Amino acid sequence: MRIISGFAGSLTLRVPRSGTRPTSDRTREGVFSSLDSRGASDGARVLDLYAGSGALGLEAVSRGATSAVLVDRASDAVAVCRQNAALVLRAAPKGDAPQVTVENRTAISFLERSRAFFDLVFIDPPYDIAETELTRLLELLVPRLAPDADIVLERSTRSPEPTWPAGIEVLRQRPYGETLVHFATTAAD
C-alpha cells in the first residue's frame, strides 16, 4: 500500500492487521484519475469514512487537499491512520502542511455530530454492511456536503444498488475487479 502521487508519492503506508479491505493501488489510480480530471482534490476538505489505513484521504491530501478527516471505529485502524497521517504530513511542503484529523467512532455517529462541510467524500464500508445502515449514512451525509461535492462509494459488484437520497446525484459507476465504484456529486437544487 502506497501513496501514488503528489508530495508524498511512493510513500509506503501501513495497513491494519485485520478487519479491513484496503482499496487496491489499481482502484485508487482509477478513482484519482477520474477525480483529478474534475480537480476534486485541489483545496478540498476531505472526509474518509471507514478509513481503514486512511489511504484514500491521505492520497487526496498528497494531491492538494487542504484537510482530511479519517473516520474508523476499529482501534487498530485508528492507530494505523494516525501513523500514516504522521508519515504523510512529514513529507508535506514546509509552511503549507494540510490538516489531518483521525476520529475513532462509527461513520454514522461522526455524521450525526459533525457540523463541518466536505468537498470530497470517500465511503468504503465493509461489503456486508446492512443496506439500511448505508441508506442512513447517505441521508446523514447530504447536509454535510459542500456545493459540487464529489462522493466516491466503493461496494462489491454483487451488492445491490445503494438507495441514493435526494441531494446526491449519481454520475457513473466503474468496476475494478470485485469492486464497483460509484461516483456521485451534490445534486443541483
UniProtKB/TrEMBL annotation:
The keyword Cytoplasm does not apply. Keywords: Methyltransferase, Transferase. GO terms for biological process: rRNA methylation. One of its GO terms (molecular function) is nucleic acid binding. It comes from the Bacteria. Pfam families: Cons_hypoth95. The keyword Methyltransferase applies. InterPro entries: DNA_methylase_N6_adenine_CS, RNA_MeTrfase_RsmD, SAM-dependent_MTases_sf. NCBIfam families: 16S rRNA (guanine(966)-N(2))-methyltransferase RsmD. This is 16S rRNA (Guanine(966)-N(2))-methyltransferase RsmD. It comes from Amnibacterium flavum. The gene is rsmD.
